[in-house]
Amino acid sequence: MNFSDMVPLLQTALELGLFSALTVLALYLSYSMLNVCDLSTDGCFTMGATVGAVVAISGHPFLSIPAAILAGMLSGLIVAFLQTKMGVESLLAGIIVNTAWYSVNIAIMGNSSLLNMNKTDTVFSILKEKLEGTFLAGSYKLIIAALAVLIVLVFLSFFLKTRLGLAIRATGNNPDMVKSSSINPAFTTIVGLCIANAFTALSGCLLAQSQKSVNIDIGSGMVTIALASLLIGGVIIPRGGITRKAIGAVIGAFIFRLVYTVALRFNMPAYMLKLVSSIIVIIAISTPYLKRQLPLLKRRMALRKVGTNGEER
Amino acid sequence: MLRISNISKTFNPGTVNAKLAIDNLSLEVKDGDFITVIGANGAGKSTLFNAIAGEFITDSGRIVLDDTDITLMPEHLRAIKIGRLFQDPLRGTAAGMTIEENLTLAAGRGGWLSRISHAQREEFKDMLRELGMGLEDRMKQPMGLLSGGQRQAVTLLMATINPPALLLLDEHTAALDPAAADKVLKITREVVEREKLACLMITHNMQSALQLGNRTIMMNKGRIILDVSGEERANMTVADLLQRFKEISGEALDNDRMLLGVE
């Protein structure tokens, strides 16, 4: 593969990486900060895509983005409400909402599992028109994706240092301490999940509009892919402040897509994406555990060598 | 100041594991009281604290703090007036956040979207300097890097940064090494005196139970079986205390930790 082949490849990876980076940043907030594994991510991602598509098709390309964000917040609100006020286990709350959103998303798309935006004005088609003839003509997707990620990054690095942001971080860290600071951890969980799901929905909305179509499966497996990206990011930038780690999450999303795109070039079938992302998540989560088990395993092996009657020495 | 009237709590009611943890207990704490709480394991000391702090709602009875009925008030709202420290130094602070961030949350000044101000940072620095542990130069370090004694001292700071009406200390020095325990206890006394807080302190050390504060209560099976203060308490020895326990409860206090006075 020569360099001229690499450039479009890199660009695709970067675009897709940046679109999914928004979901990765959502998980950065919910999984890393709030310590909640939000399994409604897939459904919420699809909901952002469907709501955004429906609003855009109805002739409001700019309104489609806040509409998707609002839908995401509503989704997050429901998940958080189930967890904090209805006594539903946090994992279960996510799965239930995720299942429910399958029906809701088909309903949003008007009893269809596929919407086409080929002739629809979206922020992408508008920017593409504007840039026609300039040297940036080919990078309209990249510009919008990068802009969205940048806005979310700036927002997060500001927000997580405010008092509310600190309270959200502490909720994941030590809910007892939040209570003794006279803050209701239910409140911080609700706010955190609303914001995180707003990012997820934005992610879905932008991806769908950039590829000019939505189908009901657009979000499936998103939570695992995003988690894999987040964990890769954590390996690359293991230490540092919250902003550094958030940037790490974005880099993780890009690397994940890059590896995947390159693997596709080497004839890995496209359907392997989800298997690969699952394996990455398994490796990333189990490695620290297995490392802790290592000394025990070593001693067992040593004992086996000398036999059960022998001295360990 | 704090009036607890006839509270009861049964855990796992209606099962074979049902346990009457608080049995029709009443207690009146006056302004400026520093009460030490003693009793064998399982006597209901921590459960009483949990009831006051609102970790659970009692089955019956009422709790009134500073003329406000807090019987049904949720835990985080009670925390405005009640500060609390646990035996486990890890419970009071968020390990993954910096000292400064922990203090900011505890201080709770400004709006939700406000950030730590320069003035506030200086204020925290002064408070940390007073602890004499060199923490004023480590404000940007995560709480998790601190020793148990340092964490407990910062937790004490956090619990009293907005002076509460009542401070609950649940063996808060028991998990520390003797030197750190002395230091934390010294800081505790200073804070309580300076802010004129009412304070309840659980301890297993009978000697310090009689020395610290102005009043001692002894619990057994979810009840207060002894409440001494003033002259009577001043003349009391650990042996007297044990004797009184035997007389009232009809059994000897067989708790090694208490008898040996090990903190």
The biggest beta sheet of chain A reads: 2 strands, antiparallel
The domain count of chain A comes to 1
Low-pLDDT parts of chain A are none
Instruction: Specify the number of helices of chain B.
Output: 10
Portion of residues within helices of chain A: over 70%
- Secondary-structure element pattern of chain A, one letter each: HHHHEHHHHHEHHH
Number of helices of chain A: 12
Task: Provide tags for this entry.
heterodimer; A: 313 residues; mainly alpha; ABC transporter involved in vitamin B12 uptake, BtuC; two-stranded antiparallel sheet; 2 strands; 75% helix; 2% strand; B: 263 residues; alpha/beta; six-stranded mixed β-sheet; four-stranded antiparallel β-sheet; 10 helices; 36% helix
Describe this entry's structure for a reader:
The complex is a heterodimer of chains A (313) and B (263). Chain A is globular, with a radius of gyration of 22 Å. A two-stranded antiparallel sheet of chain A has the order 1-2. Chain A contains twelve helices and two strands; from the N terminus they run H-H-H-H-E-H-H-H-H-H-E-H-H-H. Chain A has helices at residues 3-33, 41-57, 64-85, 90-108, 123-131, 140-159, 163-173, 175-180, 185-210, 222-236, 242-265, 273-306; strands spanning 114-116, 213-215. In chain B, 36% of the residues lie in helices and 24% in strands. In chain B, helix 5 (148-160) packs parallel to helix 6. The A-B interface holds A 159, 161-164, 166-167, 169-170, 173-174, 176-185 and B 74-77, 79-80, 83-84, 90-97, 101-102, 104-106, 108, 110-116, 158-159.
